[in-house]
Write a structure and sequence with these properties.
two-stranded antiparallel sheet, alpha/beta, 9 strands, nucleus, Rossmann fold, flat, ORC4, Arc Repressor Mutant, subunit A, five-stranded parallel sheet, 8% strand
Amino acid sequence: MQLRNKRSDPPGATKSRQHKKARKTVATKQGNKNKQECVSQVADILLDKQQCEMLQEQVKEYLLRKLCQTRLTSWDDQEFSSLSKTIESLVRNPAPQGESIILIGPAGSGKKKLVEEIVQKMKSESQTQRLKVIQLYGTFHAHGEGPMRETHLQLKNSMPNTEVNQSTTEADFLEDTANDSSTKYIFLLYDFEYFVREKNQSFLYRIFEFFQRNKTSGLVLATSQQHDLVDSLEKRIKSRFSHRVYYMPTFKDTRQVQKILRSIFSIDADAPSSILAVKQPFNQEMSQLFGDTTWNQALEELLKSTPNVSSFLRFAFYTITTMSLDKFGIPKFDLDIVRHGSRQLRQSAGRMEMLKNLSVLEVALLAALCRLTCRQLEKSEKGQSCAKPVAFSFERIYQEYIKQELNSDSTPITADSYKRPIAWKAFSRLLDIQLIRFPERRGEGRNAMELQPVILVISPEELSQVLKEHPYISLAMQRWNQHRKE
């Protein structure tokens, strides 16, 4: 039998393989060394099942406490501080005939926290009698005479009994308190969109009339989640509003979120002594987890669909509660469970939460697209097949929206809301939060995007639920929704 000659290696190949083998050996030894060090650090606390469960509960309790104490807003400290100083200066020195500020941003972006911090600081520095703070919530106080009734009650409770004229009516009480020129008035209007939707926006008009007629130093500080809110103000209100509008950013920066998560999912030096023994191996394991691709993908998907603090809190809470510890006290996470939990959070809470926070105009555009989609699908069922996804351009959706609004016999949307630029802003936001999307790669620029067709991401049933619960949608849309169900 003839043996085949052994293939000779080219010059330098042997040395190259030797170098690779040597590096691999060193890396293996280093990895084993790290594992040995990690094990040796916790070998003296080898836990039985009962001890492991006890330590697990203590670590979870510690992490949940850190989560509750973490300051969470969409702003970093520098941005938050800068905006706080700007608004604080306006609150301290409002215009002689009134000032106005609107904070617009999604739920959990820090609007109310920012307002409360500023007002609390003002209260601690000012004499109580010279600062009148009236807090009104749109969901409770916006309807009818509710705002004036609540204003009367809060002002009355803030004054000594000797200064209160019991015979003064609610309508005149605000005027009677304006006799002291040194008094400042701050109206905090949360959920401002409810005040805007009221007929004639009469309460807002009365506030600014009060400031101008009495030359009173005051401020209206409003918060809302609806981006197109300012465009729905009546002209007589716009002429009195100074239009200082600040938009709070969404909670989308993955690096910022990772930084917050690292600070939460770590055992610090001030932790209870019962869990300090596993501090180093625990933190090392968490550091490796944050570098895992699966973890980062789950986090990015969550922030992309529900970019708000409340979704982040649910995600962090779910991750902590599903964590387990091994016998060495090292944390174990099933990333498939974490990813599944992230998906469930997006489906159960994220989308419906976004739908409920949409403005009237945004819901109307969605309804217009849904009507067009349903008509096209009905044609397809009758034999006119449609292989491509049912998609329509902004221009087609806008025309359908105008048609429906003009046919409505009752709509709270003002004439300004029909303008194309305002509708485009609402349309762009629907794209940003992914309630509609382009089926194919879109062109660059606004003109190209207006012509590019979009498809509806939500189901007609989900939109139907929003139309049913939304109190300010036109009757025409309500009738269409009822007809679609029949």
